[in-house]
Amino acid sequence: MIIFFIEVKDLPESWKDVFHRFNKKATSSRRAILEVFEEKGQHLSAEDVYEHLRAKKKKVGIATVYRNLDLLLRMGILRKVNFGDGREHYEMIRRAARFHHHLICTRCGQVVDCEEMTQEEEEFLQHLRKELEQRQGFVIHSYHIYFYGLCPRCR
Amino acid sequence: MIIFFIEVKDLPESWKDVFHRFNKKATSSRRAILEVFEEKGQHLSAEDVYEHLRAKKKKVGIATVYRNLDLLLRMGILRKVNFGDGREHYEMIRRAARFHHHLICTRCGQVVDCEEMTQEEEEFLQHLRKELEQRQGFVIHSYHIYFYGLCPRCR
DNA sequence: ACCTCAATGAAAAATATTATCATTTTCCAT
DNA sequence: ATGGAAAATGATAATATTTTTCATTGAGGT
After folding, report:
1. Which of A4, A43, A80, B115 has the most CB atoms less than 10 A away?
2. Where do the annotations place Zn(2+) binding (chains A, B) (predicted)?
3. Which residue among A86, A103, A150 sits closest to B132, beta carbon to beta carbon?
């Protein structure tokens, strides 16, 4: 019984610890924003997040949304992605580890997440990464592939 | 003598034909913008292009720069690239064919073009493309890889 | 429970991009 | 070459997105 209690209490609380590790306050806005990403998932713009929060009756100012998207970015919880529609989008890196690439329809703008790669693909990219690191003197910590084309409906 | 004349006259004129094929006028602004990309090269923002034009004593309104970047995009001469700095950048596709990836320093924002890939790399990406096309029902016409990390000075 | 400082909301400001419209330029037909 | 129709441009206004300001609120340590 006690073990059960610790489990359900501990799991949703873990973000709090993350904020504390960064000397940031685990405010209700921040938790609500993370909740949106966990529920609604992929690549949301600031406006998207703002709207989803309103839909959940959780009013957070748009400036706070922007501030916290940037914070979560610097904390390494979100990453920026861009589909050429004039606004920045964000997605959880935890999710990005599984859904790595993006396929973008250049006609209707639809964006599809592509699931994880095969072993072979993973190895290839490690190889390419090492080669670029040597050639350019960079330390590469991540990468992102965008594929452009026409979706089933537009082709 | 006649042949010589045709040659030097024809080569710099070829953009004119491209515009005509699209039923667009080969105006001096348009040619000046293309000249900037041919001289200054990679991934310029609208503002970058505008500044380079002024430096060349060629005054083109910023609105015209935006309009023509969009036109050249639709004509398939430029492509958009994005480095998360809040503005769109453009580069020539002709050049993109050789300089394919981008390496972005997440600390100072420096962007490095990476030269063309090996045969092996090219084959791998063709393979990945075909697989995605089948899995998602897309027709993929291009792709773009961004690598993120720290440049030699920031590491 | 209090106190401090970070976080927030509302609104203004800064940036980037697009639309409007009168004027200029291209280019086709003469 | 010249004239005229239509497209392109410049200047500016409008819009969209993101950031800043500053007074007020709230989190979390004591």
Report:
1. A43
2. 105, 108, 151, 154
3. A103
